[in-house]
Amino acid sequence: MPIIKSAMKRVRQAAKRRSRNLQIKRAVHQDVRSLKDAVASEDSKQTTEALRQAISEIDRAVKKGVLHKNTAARRKSQLTKLSNTVAKPVKAKATAKAKPKATAAAKPAAKKPATKKAAK
Asked: Given this model, what pLDDT does residue 86 score?
């Protein structure tokens, strides 16, 4: 424990901030967990609502400085992909992709380099 008065205040402030940050992180985790449970139940209406709640909570954490904006973007992207598995069933991909038809457009002929004129 520090003896200096300003150091003791810093310890108190850090404890308050840590407590607030943990509350926000727990709220994000709780909403993400509810989204994963909704996806597991395969209820699309519940999944979309849980996704909206989770994204809102993540944005709130960014606003308060608990999460970095790129971390939040990555998490929101992952959660959206997860929720899309319920909303839209995955279709089987075709094994052979259709090749685009080659156009018969002729390439312009390359120009010949200019010849040097003979000096008179």
From this structure: 84
pLDDT < 70 regions, the chain? 87-110, 113, 118-120
Is-contact 68 28, C-beta < 8 A?
no
Q: What is the pLDDT of residue 106?
A: 61
Q: What single string gives the DSSP state of each residue in the chain?
A: ---SHHHHHHHHHHHHHHHHHHHHHHHHHHHHHHHHHHHHHT-HHHHHHHHHHHHHHHHHHHHTTSS-HHHHHHHHHHHHHHHHHHHSPPPPPPSSPPPPPPP-PPPPPPPPPPPPPPP-
Cβ(78)–Cβ(58) below 8 Å: no
Q: At what angle do helices 69-87 and 5-41 cross, to 10 degrees?
A: 20
d(CA 47, CA 38): 5
Question: What pLDDT shows up at residue 93?
Answer: 60
CA dist., res. 51 & res. 79, Å (int): 7
